[in-house]
Design brief:
The structure is a homodimer. The first copy, chain A, is mostly helical. In chain A, about 75% of the residues lie in helices and about 0% in strands. Chain A contains 9 helices and no strands. The relative contact order of chain A is 0.09. Chain A binds a DNA duplex through helix 1 and helix 3.
DNA sequence: GTCTATATTGCGATAGAC
DNA sequence: GTCTATCGCAATATAGAC
């Protein structure tokens, strides 16, 4: 068992993550990949069975924090729907911090699903949407939220207001001043904004943060 | 002047719009393009000077409604910041209705800007962000919105809550029940939600819609 | 495990006939 | 304006030496 074995695999995985995220699966060649890793062209086939196997390995690693977060969130049972939504908002921020490229992989799979990535994205995002919608339904039953709120649409709004920032960040920071610690600050204001938007004001004014 | 001239050009443009939107610039080959259009391989070079010229022509057409909307919005001077934001929300819905593929082209250019598309996207989205931020600043000066609101972040939230729906619609409608006339209904609720989120409730409760 | 060398396929672009 | 034929290049994958 030579040390180069694991090193080469890990190196390929790291460089593939960068390249696939920035250029997309089709636009990255095995040559480019192995040249950057200072390995032979055939290393990809040897370690991952080909370019597709390497991409699959990258995706699994990228989605790990989502998988773990969903398990955590489904295990706990926080007191109120609002606390659950806040936890979700915090997890979104945490996950994007842990995996800066994750939004890119998800967007690419939304635009053009691959055989392996498509189902992964669908399964994970499906679970997330179910969690948010279920939480919103709970809140509706408890009379916390505005009458007539469409929970399916409200779930998309929640996902949108939190994730769009991370998706468009590279471009947005060219055009609007985002400043220091922007990620956490954005998420906090966005969650407050969303909460003011859905909460029934005659039942509960939200004044934390 | 033969009829085939304009026909071939238009046919290529239409098919290229579909293919580039669905598969991306790099993943579409000139052969695939011309076979679907039932034209010769060399037609692309003849009419557009090459694959890149064709892509450029597609993008110009896709962005036309944004360009026109910005001119309309900058020409008019609606009474209040809130009316301006509402107009913006309506234009977003209208534009996505006019160009169902636009969000895909924008996302692709955000993920991997091309030489021609990158500047186009940057310029157009920059103008939009400037308009929203300026409108939010106006509202802040008039005391319409909550104290301490970060207008840069709030502008991203506005763009996110409106556009994310259109971006993820293909996937979202697999997982959440979106129903009939969903686009307009979504946009209306999202705008209301956003407004409740930013408006200073002690100054103005918003009860239209 | 890593290497070279090669087989095979597909790409965009274009010259030149019609 | 459309066609065929072809050039030059880059892609993935793999066989076989070390």
């Amino acid at each position: 068992m030579k040390m180069e074995d694991k090193d080469s695999r890990a190196k390929l995985l790291a460089i593939a993550t960068d390249l696939f995220a920035c250029k997309g699966f089709a636009a990255v060649s095995v040559r480019e990949l192995t040249q950057q890793a200072k390995l032979n062209v055939s290393a990809v086939s040897y370690h991952f069975g080909g370019k597709e196997g390497l991409y699959q390995a990258v995706l699994e690693e990228q989605f790990r924090p989502i998988r773990e977060s969903m398990e955590t969130m489904q295990a706990q049972t926080p007191s109120t729907p609002i606390a659950k939504l806040e936890m979700y908002a915090n997890r979104v921020t945490y996950i994007h911090g842990q995996r800066p490229y994750l939004s890119r992989f998800i967007m690419r799979e939304l635009l053009k699903p691959t055989a392996y990535g498509g189902p992964i994205v669908e399964r994970h995002l499906g679970e997330v949407y179910q969690f948010v919608m279920e939480t919103l339904r709970e809140g509706m039953e408890q009379g916390l939220f505005r009458q007539g709120l469409d929970v399916a649409h409200a779930a998309v709004s929640m996902a949108g207001i939190l994730n769009f920032y991370f998706i468009t960040k590279p471009l947005a920071e060219k055009m609007v001043p985002l400043g220091e610690d922007s990620d956490a600050k954005y998420a906090m204001q966005a969650f407050q904004l969303y909460l003011y938007g859905i909460v029934d004001s005659k039942t509960k004014g939200n004044e934390n943060g």
